[in-house]
Amino acid sequence: MAESSRRFTYAILGLAAVLIIAVLAAGCTQQPGDGQKTTLKVTGSTTVLPIAQAAADAYMDDHPMTDIQVAGGGSSVGVQSVGEGTADIGMSSRELKAEEKTRYPDLQSTVVASDGIAIIVNKANTVSGLTLVQLRGIYNGTITNWKAVGGPDQVIVVVGRDSASGTREFFWESVMKKENFTATQLEKNSNGAIRQTIVQTPGAIGYVGLGYIDAEVRAVPIMVNGTPVDATVATVLSGKYPISRPLLMITQGPPSGVAKSYLDFILSPAGQKIVTGEGFVPVA
Amino acid sequence: MSDRQAVRRSRSEIGVRVVWFLCALFAVITIFFIFAFLFYDAYPIFEEIGVWNFLSGSVWNPTGFPPAYGIYSLIVATLLATFLAMAIAIPLGIGSAIYIAELAPYRVKAWVKPAVELLAGIPSVVFGFFGLVVLTTWIRVSFDVPTGETWLAGSILLAIMALPTIISVAEDAISSAPREYKEGSLALGATHWQTISRVLTPAALSGITAAIILGIGRAAGETMAVLMVTGNAPVIPDPIWDVLSPIRTLTGTLGIEMGEVPVGSTHYHALFGVAVVLLVITLIINFSATIILNRIKRQQAPPASTGIPRRFPLTGWMERQGIFFRAHRTPILWGLMAVVLFAFFGLTGLGIALVLYLAVRYIPGRISPRWAQRIAFSLAALCIVVVLLALGIILYDILTKGLPYISWEFLTEPPSNLGRSGGILPAIVGTMYLVMGSIAIALPIGIGAAIYLTEYTSEGRLVGIIRTATDLLNGTPSIVFGLFGFAFLVIYLSFGVSLIAGQITLALMVLPTIIRTTEEALKTVPVPVREGSLALGASKWQTIRRVVLPPSVPGILTGTILSIGRVAGETAPILFTAVVFSTRFLPSSLFEPVMALPYHLYILATNVPNATGQQYATAVVLLGIVIAFYAIAIVIRHRSSVKYRW
């Protein structure tokens, strides 16, 4: 038994050693120049997040003493965070709602980019184009087969965003005219997840930002007055493509300090190049 | 020994006892706090639309016009998904456990057992991603349905995820059945299979119970994998046994919506309402599982009852039902099974039930025990093959797609370009901190609680409460811990989204695993050994420390291994409490947010296009870290497993 009790002691000691090392390690992660680090917290829409993060990366390369922390959470969370002061900049993929404006009267929006909402289907789908009315019919459940809109004889698998999403809210207002979605709609919590489902489901339809269009999915042109309009940066910029929206960065009052410098960078030619690179439509 | 020494000794004995008691009480306090905080945040929705409307409403559309907050379909979906997953996982798991414990040649066992344990560490996000890409496509093609994102996909994934837990714990239980039982049975001329099925398995029933409850806990509460493969359409399958219908579980709803609602909105309160309901459902599942299995245990503990009522006179309705049930057990069970099969597969199911019944009724009498043994052993071997195959396919998929992207830069640099290039160092460090912090909190408390429960008490009312609390905590879904951590640590205590909030949340999550496995380990030490030590004049604490704990170390390590695997791979509890999408800096205090590997993987998989390689590479690194932890623990366990055979 002496033997075994010694082993037990060793096990305890080993464990204790690991813990002590962990605590020490936690204490030792001093960053170079830790003292003057300034932090900027950016929170909100996952649609705007790629722009904010890529711009933050470039900005931090030039300003090594600045730590820009970008987090998701959705447009509503973005507005709330900046309104309550828990974030310096809120990201939103929709305009402020009336109740948000009355609750946080000082908020100021800066448009940093526009975003076209592309309607995507599986590569194998032959449908040539959809009108906004047909699109609404598909999403409210009155059209259930691709045959009805000039496609193959195949059941339509409707894919949309979760009910907390700003993109869904925008789609619901601008395309659905506030009609309810069909109950059998598959719900995904991100653009990437929607795209993934479309890629592997022949009958599926979904809506994503322009940046998510690639060779694996097909963006369906929207029929405007009988002519098909492709979802591209050019058609959104010219205003021809009917489903597009501004992307906002929101500050408490006019931006100042690091926040101003960061927003100025995004609006500069270099920043707008990042916007284009992420698949969004530049504003300047 | 002088009087003073005796007094000091008894004082320190009391001190030790009080410490362990407080540890044990911790679980009760935690579960109370979870209930209190969830209910506090859920109350406004109950008040606004009424409890009954909330539960029975069939439409969930919080941002529709008008908003609808009905969760009936979500409740049904959660029950269905868990039920089917367990129907798959329990037979496979117990079959595999029997194979590993009793049938596997030593060399095979030496490989298979750690392999199964290792697999518990595959993060749920990885399962989800694999399920989304491979499993749903397979289901769509082979069943010819419009989409493979279905109830079936969710349940298969849940079954695979629950298997390592079920197998590990059940195997431990079967292996630690007293050796005399086995020898006695074999000496009486029973075949090996008869010994396993009639002696060892009943003897290990308590441990197998634990295994199943742990498995159900994991399945009912799983979030990330489920939300990625079930489609999340809030509908009830029509007809109800249509396993190819998309469903939306309570956990899935929390997972996809919680991160994006503003604090204090009606939608926010509705989600806490969902969490309360989820908690109540898991509570009911746990309670019924415990009650049912306790009954079985009581029935089997004395020499197997032959259907003759043992106790007269009849004392009440329950008692009469019990006797009626015992007397007609076979037809009732078969009838039940036929109904279930009929419900799921229609007439074909009824046919299957009939064939099975005839097989079980007439074949055993006709085939020799030797053949019965051959058939049973082949089935057990088949179980383990199926399990390893399923897990092997997943590992192969991850490794072949991820390894090419791993480089020194990937491991040592911060991410850039949204994680499409650069490395994942902050995420690796963040995950290590989360694991170490949470284990450092949970291990002492968990072991203390287990010691108190097994060594210091007999089954009284208080112990009953503590044990129930532990079971409840175990059944509590990880996403509920996430919500609790958010409401209590992040908002109420204003820790903010921080490392410490994540560590505490994760520690609470693994606490029951550590308590349960430690308890099981302590229980395998026979009472006479303790009595011997006490008789020699050792104090209670001396007995525990020198006699009871050392042989229990391997069992405790198994629990710790399982916990580390879970902590490293969990996304749901840290989703709202500890993580940030991307940072270049390592955390410099406990109150800063961190990056973590599973969350990074989740974000890459769902929010960043064109990062497939980095996704798989991140998965490989995560697996590598978990495997490293596991390997260390397995080596320690192997070295300390001096043959304690009682």
Describe this structure in words.
- The complex is a heterodimer of chains A (284) and B (646).
- Chain A is an alpha/beta fold.
- Chain A is built from ten helices and eleven strands.
- In chain A, strands 1, 2, 3, 4, 5, 6, 7, 8 and 11 form a nine-stranded mixed sheet that branches. A two-stranded antiparallel sheet of chain A has the order 9-10.
- In chain A, helix 2 links the parallel strand 1 (38-44) and strand 2 (66-73).
- In chain A, helix 9 (257-267) crosses helix 10 (269-277).
- Chain A is elongated, with a radius of gyration of 24 Å.
- The model of chain A is unreliable at 26-34 (pLDDT under 50).
- Chain B is mainly alpha-helical and 646 residues long.
- Chain B has a domain at 13-37 and 407-646: MetI-like fold (Orthogonal Bundle).
- Chain B is 76% helix and 1% strand.
- Chain B has helices spanning 3-49, 51-56, 72-103, 106-119, 124-143, 151-175, 179-187, 192-203, 205-221, 224-229, 250-257, 266-300, 317-327, 329-345, 347-366, 369-402, 408-412, 425-456, 461-475, 478-492, 499-523, 527-535, 540-569, 572-575, 597-607, 612-640; strands spanning 60-61, 68-69, 415-416, 421-422.
- In chain B, a hairpin with a 6-residue loop joins strand 1 and strand 2.
- Chain B is globular and about 70 Å long.
- Chain B starts with a helix and ends in a 6-residue tail after the last helix.
- In chain B, 51% of the residues are buried.
- The model of chain B is unreliable at 302-320 (pLDDT under 50).
- Chains A and B meet through helix 1, helix 2, strand 2, helix 3 and helix 6 of A and strand 1, helix 5, helix 11, helix 18 and helix 23 of B.
